[in-house]
Amino acid sequence: MLNITLINLFSFRVPLIKGKSMRTALKEKGLLEDFLKKHPHNLASKYNLYAQPFAEPMYNDLDIEYYGVISIGTPPQSFNVLFDTGSANLWVPSVYCSSYACSNHNKFNPSQSSTYQALNTALSITYGTGSMTGFLAYDTVTIGGIVDPNQMFGLSETEPGSFLYYSPFDGILGLAYPSIASSRATPVFDNMMNQGLVSQDLFSIYLSRNGATGSVVVFGGIDESYYTGQINWVPVTTQGYWQIAVDNVMINGQVVACSQGCPAIVDSGTSLITGPPSEIPTIQQWIGAVNSNNEYYINCQNIPSMPQVVITINGIPYTLPASAYVRQTNGQCTSGFQSMSLPSAQGDLWILGDVFIREYYAIFDRGNNMVGLAQSV
User: Fold this and answer.
1) Which of 139, 190, 201, 267 is catalytic?
2) Is 84 a catalytic residue?
3) What pLDDT, in 10s, does the model give residues 32-72?
4) Domain 225-376 in CATH 2.40.50.90
5) pTM for the full model?
6) Is 267 designated active site?
7) In CATH, what is the architecture of 51-219?
8) Which of 2, 143, 272, 369 is the most exposed place for a label (fewest CB within 10 A)?
9) For residue 141, which of 90, 97, 104 has the smallest C-alpha distance?
10) For residue 205, what are the contacts with CB-CB under 8 A and spacing of at least 6?
């Protein structure tokens, strides 16, 4: 979704390891050794026998955005990209871009890559903040130790406005479903799955707090060191965004929003928790946030006595203490809730952005179309 604020369901339990790879299944049945003898290495790779989870570190930029380094082309050209579960396209600036936003970022040069293949299909994407236009092409993309050949990606030609100029990342790597990919481009994770590059058809995200290091996206696996307790699995209700159903939002035991249930998306590309303009002001009032020019301020001294906000998903409470939903920057405290109108066929969407994901390790399971949530360490 990429809605970055700059400074100014049905849930049930399943075993931890889901979607066994063929290697694991054959080994459990005592057939792995015989299979490897009968089949050449290229066939074995196709069936995902050697794929392993790979962790891609992410930088934490003031708890506002999380991004990591990938490379595109041969030899590799490096880019910082925001890993965004709220969009589905990979794109980076190109040498064909003359926009202000491209002037201070790395730009992909097709003439310097021997594996580049032109496609020349037009591409246009608009986010909650920022936009781009350009075209699509193919090349090898390397992420966290995974070499992803013939990956479709976008090369920007325009990046209007100043937002992307001030962004620490060069481009965006979308991790949502292919149904929302602009110009029908194949998303990176879909290409990984199709080529058997991941051991499980899922990825997971841990976001650090207070600007600390340690944020990571794990492709093809779940890392127990990033959470405590059990994982609660929530079905994806619409396969576009990572959309789930929320029961309600409560404060001090009272339902204050989403009283009839509401659709929500789990979105690493949005900094805050957003909801309909008809409901978020009620939450701001309950937590004591005061509106000043559409920015909701909080007295920092009140944080220890402020209430918890509980987002309930099929009876499972996901608790957010004030330390999680209050943003403290340069001696000022602001609310981590924001009004945003995002209509959908199921009603106005809520966005569970980084404020939520920092508290709950999130697993995005394409093999079973579920989101797993567990208390972050």
Assistant:
1) 267
2) yes
3) 455 444 543 333 333 344 577 899 999 999 999 999 999 99
4) no
5) 0.87
6) yes
7) Beta Barrel (2.40)
8) 369
9) 90
10) 83, 85, 216, 217, 218, 268, 357, 361, 362, 364
